[in-house]
Amino acid sequence: MIIGAACLLMPFALIAEQASLFEQRATYQSAVANYAAGKTTQANKQAERLADYPLYPYLQYHKLRVRLNHASGHEMQQFMKDHVELPVSPLIFNRWLKKQASKRRWKTFLKYYSGSENTELQCYYLRALYATGRKTQALDQTTALWVSPTSQPKACDPLFATWRTTSRFNEDVAWQRLHAAIQSNQRTLARYLLRFFSGQRKRAADAYYLLHTQPIKVTRYASFAKDNEKYRQVIQHGLIKLSKKQPEKAAVAWKKYNKTHSFSASAKASVEERILVGLAMADKFPAEQNRTLIESPYAIDGLAEAALKNVRWQELSYWISRLDESERSKLRWQYWLAKSLDMTFEENAIEAQQSKDIFLKLAQERQYYGFLAAQKIGQPGKLNAQQPLDTAAAVLNNLAMRGDVMRAVELFAVGDDLNGRREWYQAKKTMTPAELQQLAHLALNMGRLFLAIQTANSAEAFDDLALRFPLAFSPLFDEASHKNNTQSSLLRAIARQESAFQPSVVSSAGAQGLMQLMPATANLAARRARLPRVAPGDLKTPAKNIPLGSYHLTWLIQRYDGQRPLAIAAYNAGEHRIDRWIKGKEGVPIDIWIESIPFKETRNYVKNVLAFNVVYAHLLGNPVDVLQDAEKFVRPR
Predict the structure, then answer these.
(1) Which of these is catalytic: 351, 498, 595, 601?
(2) For residue range 93-146, what is the model confidence (pLDDT) as tens digits?
(3) Which residue of 81, 90, 516, 536 sits 20 to 30 Å from the alpha carbon of 157, by its own alpha carbon?
(4) pLDDT confidence of residue 3
(5) pLDDT at 585
């Protein structure tokens, strides 16, 4: 039974004797607005009437926030002491510290700073030490901050500028950071660091950056003839990079460099195993008599991946058998072991039975590979749904009476989602799995579907399908399914994967809403569907987002001749990439094509959506297989 949020919150109303909960929320929102507008006297009077309201501490927070520039250290300490339970307390204290530093109030900063993982504050701390006479102490600690593989905050720049004038900074330290930046693929930072080298080190640094961006240049042997530590490091990096796309050329180059340069044993092993994997990816596997000589976990894993990519069944079964037990026991490799045995056993009854046994075991799992295995042996996929949890009002109300949960619920009610999530996440840290699962149901009853899904995962309540696969926005999905002749379960699966049903979420790339549409894609879909042009804010409205996302997905399914895995991949990564990825792949089993998708994000995305589709189809009373008969193999468009 679904209990309305208002019913869950009835105990809160008992706290307030002067006003109803509705009135308290309205007064709170007005007080926050008044503090922001500088109407402090009026806001203070409103706050007095809310002394027993769960969000009263947040009124003190908002009052302090608007006058942070003028707050004293004593005032900040008192707020921290009085409201130590609030997630915003350390946040506002850190903002206050940064303000002290920006105004060069170094003594005040040092008096109240007690350490932080925030890099900006760390730099301010060292600047404060330097400004108050402890220069050696400050500069000695600066090196560790400077050698970061990523760019540091601008607050660090004055400190770094001073530090670089001392003997602590030299080209060896610069090389340390250059190496870290290149290994982290921080190209802009690496290019910036080249300015700190001169002479022979400058040539080595330039070569390092060059081979990172153009690894084929490692075949210019004369340019890397010097046999010293830095050039060996540069050559090793270039060969490893080259082995991914041109392993044959990397192998030839390595033979020459291995004779002319004194690489360490570990460096040799690193280069050779990557070339070995690169060649296997190009379908050139090691000779059978050399297999047992290969012991590196990286190489064995890479050879298994290469065998899978190249549909080499015997190689696949062999290299899976060589995987570390913890890796081999994963569902993914168990599925591919069973399939490789199934494709190669011929008359071998032992391998035939082994394949069948693995598929039978996998078919019990509510997961992508479990659904593939179930389809393989002709069984329906298993949902393994948990029996309904006790979510009676009394149970959830008891949980909701916790101070942190109470504050989170009220913050959501007054529209402060950011602080509501902060309280929620902090509350989760102190709960048992059983409490977390109940908390997830509380989120579900409030309509906070993303929090319900996320909290259920934290509780490891993986079989509580009501939480993990909510049946939300049903009329909109059903209508879109009918209009586009596309499975309602598939549309829900896309929304579940894209946004976890967050209507207003915006990705870092700018995709918006339930089905995460880019504005340009949405307008293209609107034009094709003869719908009105998308206005600002439309994509955060489910009634606009779902029809457009559903039409776009359906259009992609048609474009790829009904092959949903290709359409799903295109929904995530774009049509042009999919066109490249299917070129020359006609007849490749679709499950292998999915495994070979170059982008890990898209690869996992397709698997999740296909699995979610099976779950939703079952929940909606229309069970389906994970793959349709017409999409077992990649077909040309």
Answers:
(1) 498
(2) 999 999 999 999 999 999 999 999 999 999 999 999 999 999 999 999 999 999
(3) 90
(4) 40
(5) 94
Check: CB of residue 237 under 8 Å from CB of residue 202.
no
Residue 324 identity: D
Burial 550-566 (b: 16+ CB within 10 A, else e): bbbbbbbbebbeebbbb
CATH fold group of domain 474-631: Lysozyme (1.10.530)
Rounded to whole angstroms, the Cα distance separating 287 from 300 reads 14
The string of DSSP letters for 346-384 reads TT-HHHHHHHHHHHHHHTTSSSHHHHHHHHHTT-PPP--
pLDDT tens for each residue of 485-504: 999 999 999 999 999 999 99
Residue 498 catalytic? yes
Sequence spans of domains, the chain:
171-281, 288-376, 474-631
The residue with tokens 């993914």 is 332
Q: Ramachandran region of residue 240, left (φ > 0), alpha (ψ -120 to 50) or beta?
A: alpha
List, for residues 563-598, the tens digit of each pLDDT value: 999 999 999 999 999 999 999 999 999 999 999 999
**Amino acid present at 160:** F
Q: Measured between alpha carbons, how far is 320 from 303 in angstroms, rounded to an integer?
A: 9
CA distances from 577 to 372, 554, 585 (A): 25, 18, 14
